[in-house]
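WARN retry 2 of 3 for item q-0093 after timeout on previous attempt; input resubmitted unchanged.
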Amino acid sequence: MGKRPLVFCGCCRRRASPDKASGNKPQVIGKDKEISINIGKPSSAPPETAASAALRAKESAALGVALQDSELAKMCGAGLPVRELRALRLLCEQSCRGIDYARLGHGFPPQHPTNRLSYREGRHESFQKSAQRSQESRGILLCICLQLMHQPNTAAATIVREFCREIRASDSACQGATFEGVSAALENELLLPLRSLCEGISWLCLTHSKEPLPRAEIEKTVSEITQSVLRNNFKEWRYGNPVGMRQLQGLSEAQVAKWTEATSEWIPLGERNLRIHEDEAHELGLFWATKIGGPSHGFDVLGQCLLPLLANARSKVILISDTSYPHHPVGRAHFKLLWTVSNQPVLWLETVNKDFRAQVDTGTWLSAVLAHAVTKANAMGVMLSCEPKIASELSAAAAKANPSLVPVVMYMQDRLVLRPSNAVVEASDYLSNKHDWLQMAEEVTVPLQRVVYIPPNAPPPAADPGAATATPLIPGFFKSVL
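OK item q-0093 returned
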C-alpha cells in the first residue's frame, strides 16, 4: 500500500481531510508538534512465548487505562516489542497524569505533594490544576499510538523524542539521548522530576533566603544532569566529572570504589524486613530521596537544594526500605564524604527522616543506619561523624561491628573543608546555618561539634589549631594524640 499522510484530531482521533491548500501537510498536534502517519506493510515477527504474550497483554491493558482507549492500546501493543511497549505505557502514565510546572511553578511552603506515592496516584490539586496540559499530552500520545500501529520499528526513537518533549529539556540536554536512558528514567518515575527542573529554572535561581544564584550556571547544571540521565550515564557523570573527581581527590582507588558502591544489606525483623541501601547501582533514586520526610528539598520545593545531591560526587543518601510499605523507600539520611582542614576524609551522616505518609515502625531505623555507616567507615578506613545526641547509639553500633576491639568513639570539634560544589550551591542544616548557599569556591566551615567513630584501620585525627581538642566519649576509649 502506498504512503500517505493521515491527520487526526489530538483529542478524539477522528480522521480529518487533508488541507489541499497546505499540500497535505499534517495537522499540528499539541504544542509545536507535527505527526505524520505513514501506512506501510506490517513487519513480521517470530512466534511469541506464552510468558511474553501475557506480559504484552498486561502492558497493553495498562496502556489503555492511561490513554482512556483500550482498543487502540491493544492494537498498538500487538505490534511492538514488549520493551518498547512497556516504555510507551510508562510514558503515557507519567505524561497523562502530570503537573504543569511551566504554569504552576515551584514554591515554599510546598504547593505540590510531599510524598512520592501521591505523585503516583495523581489526585493532588496540583494535578487537577494541570488537567489541560495532561489532556494535551494524551491527545498527542493517542496520535503516536496510531502511528506506531503502522510503524512499530520507530517506537524507540519516538519514545525518546516524546520524553524529551514532555520534560521540556533543552536541545543541548537532548543531544545523545538514548532509549536505554529514557527507559531507565521512566522505570524510576523521573518524568516529573526532570520536567520540574527543566521548567523551573527561575525558581532554582534563588536560595531559601532569596539570595540570587547565577542563572547561566544553574541552567548548565540542570542541562548536564538531564543529559546524563538521557544518555544512561548518570552515575558515571556524577563521579567522573572534573569537579566531582576533585571532591574525592585524596582517596585511594579502593576507597573511591567503596564510596561509589551502592552498598546494601537486608535486616530480618520477623514479619517484616528492612533493607538499608545507598539507592541502587544507577542512583536514579536520588531524584526522589528528598521527598522522603522533611524538610523537603524536593525537585519542586526549594529545588535548588536537591541539586547538590544530584550533581556532587561527595553526596549520597542512605535509604531505608520496609517490606511492610512496598511502594518505595520510606526513610533516608544524607551521607557525605568531606575533608577536615588537615586533609583527612570523613564520612558525614545527617539525621534519619521518615516518609510523611508511610505508617511504619521506625524503632530500629537509627541502629540499622548507624550499623550501615559504621560498616562503610570500616571498609574505607575513614572516620564517621554524627550528631552528638546519638553518641550512645553510635558507640553501640561500633562495638557490635568490632566485637573483639574497644571501639574508638569521641566527641570532637573540627572544621571541615567544602571543596567547590558541582551544583552551584550546597545545602545542609548541619554544615551551615544558611540552609542553602552559593558554593562555587572552596570554603571552610566554623568548628562543628560532632561525635566521631575512628575505625581500627583509620589514622588518628590530626590536630586542628582552629578547633577544640578531642574528648573521649568513655574514659579509656581513646588516647588523645592532639
